[in-house]
Task: inverse folding
């Protein structure tokens, strides 16, 4: 049976009203999502922390690239790629918060302390495989402590989340380097972590990091 013209018009009006309602709901959801992604407060100290950690993760990556070319050890081959991932995570926050940054070529650092570390690490790491592995452990040792200090000094949950993930990765890297050192008949003494912190990490299991 054919519907009357008035019935068809009524149906059309109902459909148009339904579509309008759905669009309104969609806009509400978009507004809510936008609200959820509003940037948090980032202090000058937080900005400096991000810029420093970008270069400290670069220090790890660049050193491991060099040492991998020297010794072709699995630790350096694998972990140098992880350090690039760490750099990417910090870089994403810098972009999110519109912070200007610059990544220098391999082996070059804006921070003079990190430049001095790199220059010394590649010299010492060229001496022996054991030295190279100990340098890897030293970098992760330093990284864990610096990340923890920055985590304690901020209330920004974006930064805390990323830095906690990086710290988790560094604990795994430290275990890997120490395993290689001990398998080679040597030992590593923590340079930055306390003995208690160090042995807690070393005696722990491999972690799954977000």
Result:
């Amino acid at each position: 049976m054919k519907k009357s013209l008035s019935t068809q018009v009524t149906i059309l009006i109902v459909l148009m009203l339904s579509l309008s309602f759905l669009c309104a709901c969609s806009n509400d959801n978009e507004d809510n999502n936008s609200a959820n992604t509003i940037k948090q407060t980032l202090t000058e100290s937080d900005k400096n922390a991000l810029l420093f950690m970008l270069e400290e993760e670069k220090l790890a990556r660049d050193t491991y690239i060099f040492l991998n070319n020297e010794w072709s050890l699995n630790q350096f081959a694998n972990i140098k790629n992880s350090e690039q991932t760490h750099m990417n995570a910090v870089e994403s926050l810098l972009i999110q918060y519109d912070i200007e940054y610059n990544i220098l070529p391999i082996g070059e650092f804006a921070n003079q302390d990190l430049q001095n570390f790199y220059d010394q690490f590649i010299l010492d790491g060229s001496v022996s495989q054991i030295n190279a592995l100990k340098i890897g452990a030293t970098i992760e040792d330093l990284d864990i402590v610096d990340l923890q200090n920055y985590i304690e000094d901020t209330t920004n949950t974006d930064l805390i989340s990323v830095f906690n993930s990086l710290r988790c990765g560094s604990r795994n890297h430290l275990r890997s380097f120490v395993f290689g050192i001990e398998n080679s008949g040597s030992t590593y003494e923590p340079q930055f972590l306390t003995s208690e912190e160090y042995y807690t990490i070393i005696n722990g299991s491999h972690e799954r990091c977000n």
In short: Residues 1-36 have pLDDT under 50 and may be disordered. The domain at 44-202 is CATH 1.20.1260.10 (Ferritin).
